[in-house]
Known about the structure:
- The chain has about 400 residues and is mostly helical.
- It has helices at about 1-40, 165-190, 215, 220-225, 230-240, 250-270, 275-285, 320-325, 325-335, 340-355, 385-400, and strands at about 50, 60, 95, 110, 195, 205, 250, 300, 310, 320, 365, 375.
- It starts with a helix and ends in a 14-residue tail after the last helix.
Amino acid sequence: MKFARFWGARNQRSNSTARLLLGLVALGLIFFLFTSTTTTEVQTTPDDVPVQSPDDDVIVESTKGKDVPTQPTKNDDVPEQGDTDEPVQGGTDVPVQPTKNDDVQQGDKVPVNPAKKEAPKEDVPVQPKTNNRPAQSKPERPLPPHSLYSVKIPNVVGYDPEDEDSENKMRRDTVKEAFRFAYEGYRDHCMGQGELKPESGHCHNWLGGNLGLTVIDSLDTMLVMGHDDLYKEAREWIAHNLNFAKDLSVSVFEITIRCLGGLLTAFDMTKDQMMLEKAQELADRLLPAFKTSTGIPFGFVTLTSGATKQAGWAGGASLLAEMGSLQLEFSYLSHATGNPIYAEKALRVFKVLHDNKPADGLYPVFINPHNLLMRGPITVGAIGDSFYEYLLKYWLLTNVFFLSRSFLFLEY
Length: 412
């Protein structure tokens, strides 16, 4: 019974809805018919009201009550050229473009009522429509002055800043001044510490200790932008104040990509041996993280004792993005020092991952450094992203493609 009442009520609501929709459709039809009827009526003007001619400077008298010829349609009989029918006063003779079914010769003229339709001020011959007319190309529009496509992107190799136009030079100088403003704020308030909080002016050492994270990470930018004075100040601080002999547990991944990478980049650009010595000292303090049975490094290492640990939330596992984002820096350090130990430790990670590749070739983000148990999501986002980034970058740097099917140092 409950179901029957429910079904009956439902049918009743459906019938009401259907009636409402039908009513709306009927109203729409009535409105359409009404508007169609009103638009077909001939527009007239009141008595003694002048009608504006297509020529703005000419006023003609009203046409109400007079016989006014209308513009012919497809089935109208158009007078042949030479007929003496005169146009209505104030009208203008204009050529009519024939269509497929018209019997009108090119150039024929018909009278036009100026009160109903504007006519061009002069006769312009119109070409008849044809289906095989070649397509006309659109005129090229000039690019807006600030369009992205109008920006000249310089070639770094052999690039001469003097060849820049004034607008690009202004943009470049603006970016350089923005960097100087930000770095000088850090230098004046938090020199040698991790970073500056711009609103409060407080310093924050998220990596731990006064390791000059922002100083080191900004070295290459100073050199590229030509801020020689800032680079000189930063170099002096590194030479006399940077000290890695601290009882501090640091993320192997974070300190590698920021501090080790920053020092090696400065060395590569300046050949300053002090930068290379600092980089090698740091790498030596990170090597204990690789002392595992598989070669997969721990996530954290203490810089003085070499004690290792994992992130508490990782459940004892190492992270794919972290273990796979050390190879560029450690390999370049071996190249610069001639000591292969750094490259061997980092590249072993790629080999172990290849030898234990899952059947579908996709790596979960959590990998146990003791038994290589893999678990967790598969992603190219956070916790997995830079592993794939470094595979491509290492191939570009060395022409060696790891994780290929034949794998070991396949050279092109």
